[in-house]
Specification:
single chain, 359 residues, mainly alpha, 3 domains, 73% helix, 0% strand, elongated
Length: 359
């Protein structure tokens, strides 16, 4: 019933849009909130009028709704009149000391608007840097372009304090332009050095973003190249795993190009080990090329050779078909693979394939 009602209300939304937004705000059903989110994109003027009304409402729940839905509709409020309504709504919330918990969201609305950004940016950045959960990081996307230095400083503080690192980094990276790629990379490097747990969100972002269009990947190349050059080892290891992963046909050329950049300068066995583990998930000729190239880099040092044998033994036991593949490489080119495949790996291949691997 809720789904049917949602569809009917959406279909007839033009009949009485203001009454509709009020009815949806009164409803506790999640379908009502979903429809308000749709209206933010499809009917921004109606929702901006609602936000303006709710900001002056004596009920705290309505003023909270004004901030929530104001932030939702702000990216779609391109009309000057709509932006003015949002600005007045944010100011109405901001002057109420009882609404202190909503002030972060109100300031986020004000810095989204270029007409009010300059007057409120310092206060907004202070609130954002302090980790206000009501201040979404993507609200600073445009301000990063117009006021890069103070905004980058605020992002640096927020990242090092531990507040919503995934959302914070994603918003920062998504708003990065070619001119900002280097300072953003330096910021991420510093934050990851202080908080190693950030490496996961950086690698996850890179993995998703590699699949985007050419324009997005151009900035990503600049950002990741700087991180691969002198980022902390855990971060380089996480990114190495992303770059050596198969990916899709759309992202593979850039993954391999950046992987070439990494392998041309990388000497840390731990990072090379991450490449080897990710390479084992590839197939066909690329599997052989990546494993061989990484193995050659690892055996340059005694520590690397030991790590190669240990990791490759684990991989041939765990990855279906890899034991047979390595056995085939040894049989086809013993002079090439013989010096690379250690005793532990040979023992596992022998155990799994039932055929002794020549030394």
């Amino acid at each position: 019933m809720a789904t049917a009602a949602q569809a009917l209300l959406h279909t007839h939304r033009h009949a009485a849009p203001d009454a509709l937004t009020e009815a949806l705000a009164d409803s506790p059903n999640r379908r009502a909130d979903e429809l308000l989110a749709v209206l933010a994109e499809e009917e921004p003027s109606a929702l901006c009028r609602a936000v303006d009304r709710w900001a002056e409402d004596p009920r705290p729940v309505r003023r909270a709704a004004a901030v929530t839905h104001g932030l939702r509709v702000a990216p779609y409020a391109r009309d000057l009149g709509d932006r003015t309504l949002l600005r007045y709504a944010a100011l109405a919330v901001l002057v109420r000391s009882a609404d202190r918990a909503l002030h972060g969201g109100a300031l986020a609305l004000l810095v989204r608007d270029p007409d009010s950004r300059g007057r409120h940016l310092a206060r907004a950045l202070e609130r954002f840097a302090a980790g206000d959960p009501g201040f979404p990081p993507d609200a600073l996307s445009d301000a990063l372009t117009t006021h890069p230095e103070p905004v980058l400083d605020a992002f640096r503080t927020r990242l090092t304090q531990g507040t919503d690192p995934d959302d914070t980094f994603r918003a920062l990276a998504d708003a990065t332009t070619p001119a900002l790629a280097r300072p953003v990379a330096a910021l991420v490097r510093d934050a990851a050095a202080l908080r190693p747990e950030l490496t996961g969100c950086v690698a996850g972002y890179a993995d998703r973003r590699l699949e985007y269009g050419p324009a997005a990947r151009a900035v990503l190349r600049l950002l990741l190249t700087d991180l691969l050059d002198d980022g902390p080892r855990p971060l380089r290891s996480a990114l190495a795993g992303v770059l050596a992963a198969p990916g899709t046909s759309a992202s593979r050329p850039l993954r391999r190009g950046l992987l070439d950049t990494l392998l041309a300068q990388e000497t840390d066995p731990g990072v090379l080990d991450a490449v080897l583990c990710a390479a084992a998930r590839t197939t066909g000729p690329e599997l052989r090329v990546l494993v061989h190239r990484t193995a050659l880099l690892l055996v340059r040092t005694p520590e690397g050779a030991v790590r190669l044998d240990r990791t490759l033994a684990e991989l041939v036991r765990r990855v279906p078909g890899l034991a047979a593949a390595v056995a085939g490489w040894l049989a086809d080119a013993p002079h090439v693979w013989g010096p690379l495949v250690g005793p532990a790996t040979r023992a596992v291949i022998d155990e799994l394939t039932g055929a002794a691997v020549p030394v």
